Amino acid sequence: MEMSEDDINTEEYPTEIHDYLAAFEKSLGSVDEMLKTMMSVSRSELLQKLEPLEQAKMDLVSVYTLNSMFWVYLATQGINPKEHPVKQELERIRTYMNKVKEIADKKKASKLDKGAASRFVRNALWEPNTENEQTSKTPAKGKKRKMD
Predict the structure, then answer these.
(1) CB pairs under 8 A, 24+ apart, for 103-108?
(2) How does DSSP classify residue 127?
(3) Closest by Cα among 120, 13, 117, 104 to 58
(4) For residues 45 and 145, what is the distance between their CA atoms, to the nearest angstrom?
(5) CA distance 39 to 47
């Protein structure tokens, strides 16, 4: 559904929204191109190339996008999407997206090598040798305060 510049100008609508409509048309074109790219490869072929966590991410993004597009459709039909069950569905999907993000973050977090940590701490701590022990036992020379 390509609209030429002439079609846009001949339509009757407030001129203040012309830039918004042009941006919306450009966004629709981008979505259309992305969908064509995604649909050019079979889902099973695509999923075989991904790890389970990446598969979950792709599924969640796909279903979130689909529900978001339905949200926009409802809005264009004069239905308040905030009062429609699609709102709860988007919230549910967002919850799962956050869970997947937490799992991915935990996976990325560095693992503690207990052996290396104990060696690091042991070597970083000061260990007195016999020479230091003798000097530490002698009282420190300095000014003594008189007690009145």
Answers:
(1) 103/53, 104/53, 104/57, 107/53
(2) -
(3) 104
(4) 84
(5) 13
pLDDT at 128: 67
State how far the Cα of 25 lies from the Cα of 47, in Å rounded to an integer: 31
Q: What is the C-alpha to C-alpha distance for residues 59 and 97, in angstroms, rounded to an integer?
A: 10
Q: Name the one residue in this structure whose structure tokens are 């830039």.
A: 19
Distance CA 105, CA 113 (A): 18
Reading the block at residue 142, the tokens are 């300095």
Mean pLDDT across 62-77: 93
Has residue 144 got a pLDDT over 70? no
Residue showing tokens 């991904």: 50
The 10 Å Cβ neighbour count of residue 21 is 14
90 burial (CB, 10 Å; 0-12 / 13-18 / 19+) is middle
pTM passes above 0.85: no
